[in-house]
Amino acid sequence: MLRVGLTGGIGAGKSEVSRLLEAHGAVVIDADRIAREVVEPGTDGLAAVVERFGTEVLTEDGRLDRPKLGSIVFRDPEKLQVLNSVVHPRVRARSAELEEQARGRAGAVVVHDVPLLVESGLADSYDVVLVVDADCEVRLDRLVRIRGMDEQDARARMAAQARREDRLAAADVVIENNGTVEELRERVRQVWEDLRRRAERADG
Fold this sequence. Notes:
The protein is an alpha/beta fold. It has helices spanning about 15-25, 30-35, 45-55, 65-75, 75-100, 135-145, 150-160, 165-170, 180-204, and strands spanning about 1-10, 25-30, 110-115, 130-135, 175. Strands 2-3-1-4-5 form a 5-stranded parallel sheet, sandwiched between helices. It is globular, with a radius of gyration of 18 Å. About 30% of the residues are buried. The model has no long low-confidence stretch (mean pLDDT about 95).
């Protein structure tokens, strides 16, 4: 089994790369998806968030109001750290469970899709670190034009993440995504072939 850490700054295209790798046959463990699951209504994760941030971060039907919470934590590094202290341990525990389920599959490539891989100091936890990279102007444009974010909010979210230089320094493989979707697909195909060969060698 080959353990791969996949990361990239917001707007770089990490989610698309994750989807393409999954289509090629990778087992994808998506930290963002798990992060949503661990704060669903009825979970101890949601109770812990409410304990720290109050009921104002809940919607009327008792779910987490993500835009409201995001507007609080992405402008205050200390509050972001508090939120991470609630969510990250629960995400790690669930990720470990899912990885254990994949263990034993010959030549398995397990991709951990982790937005804050560098910020959390997790780079050394993986056999290979993939970083999806795009110019800051390209990322900002995607966030505002495609995702419909307010520019100030988009800039705040970008600033809350690791510096681009730090992500690139942690990378074993960089997937550059300033171009077309077709160019990205071809680059991911090449990377997948490399990962498959590494996984076969790892299984000996």
